[in-house]
């Protein structure tokens, strides 16, 4: 063990310079990351960190051991080596695998710097904690929860098995929070008049009943003791409550098998629920931005490692292999999808800026745009200045001339120090051989990596349609006219692509990101399609290549963490204090086996019968045979179902048509803007 620690320490020392230079380059590129503390760890420690979600301590529970065993087996059999893990915190802590090659270590460091920037600047991570002077302070919060829950488990008056049972129940529901609201938003909701009535003690309600002067028979049949107890406990939200876990915390009880009734929780039980719910909010930011975050880190890693030569000549092939494996992973790959979407955002913004400038040239209109503008000459003019593109020792004199003229693309101080070193003052020499980016500013680097000058994007301007040009012209103000194409191109903003990316990074999550930027052009150029299971053919088939279908399919996988959306419809269902949950049906049926198992967990947090309203599509054998003969899908019939659990077996009941209407939807409404999601 000691030898392992010494080896890790030596490895860490060799990474001091790459980590320092990667941070400097990231900031030069416009990133603004949290400080990052790097650690080098062995396989076992890395597997432990992954099991704990990126932290060194968590509350005691069996699932961490299960996570560890799963990751250890994947690591052993080469099915999932972890190169690094980084947490959202200020400072962020990044753990690098000791067995990584030097090229891999550099790659993950650049990847981590971009993650730390995303954590620090995306609004969805701000829902967990305000970004004040102390930052999110996640490690301290999770460690505090670990101490509190461990202390509860050690108490003499608390059964350790009951603590674990409660953690199991809450963990099964950790995705039923309202990820669109801050962690504390569910506390202290404004009460309605109906809530005030429900909060009155049973004695006060009984006094009101006495004033009605009812007969003894009616009094016994309608307003019995059980009814009074339900009125005291029940809650009816005016609107469906998306934060199911907070509702259960505030209004739930514990079922007492000795009395067969619901009893008030012990304070320690609420502490457990609050701790796990708070941690669910911490991880929610990562879940709702998985595609954006991984794509963002992959994009900037590629700029730094490949575009800026952070991977040396002897390391580049190793890095290229690393990147190809990351982007080539099968299935829904958030790295690949995110990387391609961010590249699309950048390209669209750069192209829009150029078209905007060209449409301001005297005599150019949407109708004659393609005939009046020589796009090959435009692309040639948009190539980076040779001194900027080849910035390094060989272009030092050209860069010095630009710096003397006050060119904002050149770092005049670094150029001056490099010239002094070349003329005999090596003590001040910047390392421009290994890190030539030091000679350029943000504007210079933006020109060097300008989207429209990259070979893979040279057709982007040429393929723009007349309708796209006309659409853009509709929203132009008639100002800043140019006498020639040359004058217009001189005004092109080479930072437009990156600036748009930074703007999008701040407020979007995966759903709004995909909704806005997964365009027809994106789907067509990258050959995206949907596939689905055919009931008629009993096989998977290509469903559609239409952009709207692809978008809808992806959105369904990312809305609500890719889980069914469940809300609280009624906390006093059937006037007996039962809980009624509603599955917001969007055409995708529940996994009813999982739903029934989860209902049993809800019962443990409610203490009284619980119900779940959902919709399923049922097919008759005759419909399926007819569809098979015609080689099409059967239509089926949508049927409302209410599942109920009262401590015995899960039973199934017909669903009231009014409740079915409340949970049914023809399609999911994705037409929302980021600020509306964050309201």
TrEMBL record:
InterPro entries: Spore_V_R (IPR007390), SpoVR-like_C (IPR057008), SpoVR_N (IPR056174). Residues 626-652 are annotated as: Disordered. Residues 564-615 form the SpoVR-like C-terminal domain. Pfam families: SpoVR (PF04293), SpoVR_C (PF24755). It comes from the Archaea. Residues 626-635 have a biased composition (Basic and acidic residues). Residues 11-349 form the SpoVR protein-like N-terminal domain. PANTHER family: STAGE V SPORULATION PROTEIN R (PTHR30029:SF2). This is Stage V sporulation protein R. It comes from Halorubrum alkaliphilum.
